[in-house]
Amino acid sequence: MNNRMPLKIALAGCGRVADKHLKALNYLTNNNKKHGQRAELIALIDPVPQARQRILSGYGFSRDNIQEYDCLEDMFETNVNDSHMKPDIVAITTPSSQHYTQAKQALENDCHVFIEKPIAMQLEHAQELRLLAEQNYKKIVVGHIYRYFPVIGLVAQDIAQGMFGKPLYGTVSVRWGHDQTYYDQATWRGTREHDGGAIMNQSIHALDLMHWLLGEPELISAKGAISTQIHRIESEDLGFGIFEFADDRWLMLEGTTNTEPARPEASFFVRLTQGDVKAGISSGRISFSVFDSNGKQLKNRYIRREIFRRIKTEGFSYLLQMGNPHTAIYIDLIDSISNDRQPLADVVSGINSLKLVLALYQDAGVSYNH
Ligand SMILES: NC(=O)c1ccc[n+]([C@@H]2O[C@H](COP(=O)([O-])OP(=O)(O)OC[C@H]3O[C@@H](n4cnc5c(N)ncnc54)[C@H](O)[C@@H]3O)[C@@H](O)[C@H]2O)c1
Could you say which of 192, 238, 319, 362 would form a disulfide bridge with 256 (CB–CB 3.0 to 4.6 Å)? Predict the structure, then answer.
């Protein structure tokens, strides 16, 4: 068993997505046969006390060990001389427009950061975070959950090693329906300044995944079209993008929140010179197929490989976590810190996906320079 001290985590933002972080932290807080305790939640930050209380009463963490703060400044000021109460990692799960300032604050206070997507809302801000992380020898991981879905990492590895030839193009549709109530939950939702619409918020995961599978080629040009069809929001609830990349690689995106909320779905297709990959998630159910150039279906081989590697690295207890990619993100971040390597959804993935979103918006005539 590993005898390293558990990394101390502060969670800024106690809303919807925080639940996924807490499920992950619960797993990493409990002793794992192979790894021991890897994380310890030490602080909750949210200006709304009820939001903090919901978490304190809901997840079985010991209240005695968790400090509460209204804002990150308070936490850093209070603990400036107390290394026991200084976090190693700040997880930022606040409205999107706050990611940049809070990540900057955390990096400047010598913490690693887990930033929910999007990494920032302006490219210059994302690039500044990259620089700051490099200067301070800190890691940034971005909440690009699709990279951490079962099997995807193995397929991406094989594509990168050339097993299926050269990636030619990809198509992706994200039909992540939300009704008006979703947007009315909080004033930041659906605004251009704080959130963005179906492209910046919902489709950025898919853009990240597709760009990764296509080999992270340089963006040459983007065509974009957006519309706000059925919701009372400032941003788009429907968008289309066509991206041309270096080396004649292409990507087409359809992203919307206009579809039936009870049946969210996303589907992905990547064509390579020696095979193709299809994946889908529909109402929580994941499907996929991988064919090689001889028409051989490799799906079951990948499932076996994924299960064996997870049991080998984590043990059987991890199998129940496979539906919560945030657990895999934390495991990756903690390991990247211990072994001084970049995590899978690194700062560059945050920058690249933001670049695609902003290029689509720009071609559609929307500026995101707030
Ligand atoms: N990776 C994913 O799967 C995923 C899923 C959903 C949301 N997200 C992202 O997570 C972020 C939060 O989304 P959400 O749905 O949880 O929003 P939410 O509105 O439910 O929660 C945001 C929380 O942040 C708190 N907050 C606001 N200002 C704060 C501050 N200065 N300091 C600390 N806390 C503050 C709010 O009080 C609220 O409790 C967004 O950027 C969103 O894009 C990611």
Answer: 238
